[in-house]
């Protein structure tokens, strides 16, 4: 009887110690549980400006509402990127840009050369206002936080491609 107690004790320690270490050391990133009322507002399609290819930037624009949106509130947030990936599928962005962003009837999103600029503000503006020759305007149709989640995902596609290209060189 006394020989089984040390074996039971050792077995218990061997099982409990790794599990407790795993639980204590787990550091998860902050999830987006609630969205503030200001982030859930729907941005109306703003006044049309002349669309010009070649890196249009929000900094060149005088329109204050768009300038206020030049910083992505979800930048670097993995949870927002995953939600953006889901929205990319739900809103059928993959129908034109393919599921991995490689392009189909729409331009690719994984390279560094973008017609209307690849900054978060440029991507946001493209999603809100649309672009001629096929890109629909989502302004007034989806909330701001979803637009920024899409921006986060789309930006991650080009960042992954750039990192992959650097590894090959």
Protein architecture, described:
- The chain has 169 residues and is an all-alpha fold.
- The chain has a domain at 58-168: Cytochrome c-like domain (Cytochrome Bc1 Complex, Chain D, domain 2, Orthogonal Bundle).
- It contains 6 helices and no strands.
- It has helices spanning 4-25, 64-68, 78-90, 94-97, 120-129, 144-168.
- Helix 5 (120-129) packs across helix 6.
- It is elongated, with a radius of gyration of 23 Å.
The proportion of residues in beta strands is under 5%
CATH topology of the domain at 58-168: Cytochrome Bc1 Complex, Chain D, domain 2
- Major β-sheet profile: none
**SSE pattern, N- to C-terminal:** HHHHHH
- CATH architecture heading of the domain at 58-168: Orthogonal Bundle
Provide the low-confidence segments as ranges: 54-67
| Corresponding CATH superfamily of the domain at 58-168 | Cytochrome c-like domain
> What structural category characterises the helix and strand content?
mainly alpha
End-to-end separation: 66 Å
Shape: elongated
Rg over C-alpha atoms, rounded to the nearest angstrom: 23 Å
- Discrete helix count: 6
Helix content: 40-55%
Give the tally of β-strands: 0
Which structural traits does this protein have?
6 helices, Cytochrome Bc1 Complex, Chain D, domain 2, 47% helix, single chain, 0% strand, mainly alpha, 169 residues
SSE layout and pairings?
Layout: H1 4-25, H2 64-68, H3 78-90, H4 94-97, H5 120-129, H6 144-168
Helix pairs in contact: 3-6, 5-6
Q: Quick summary of this structure?
A:
By secondary structure, the chain is mainly α.
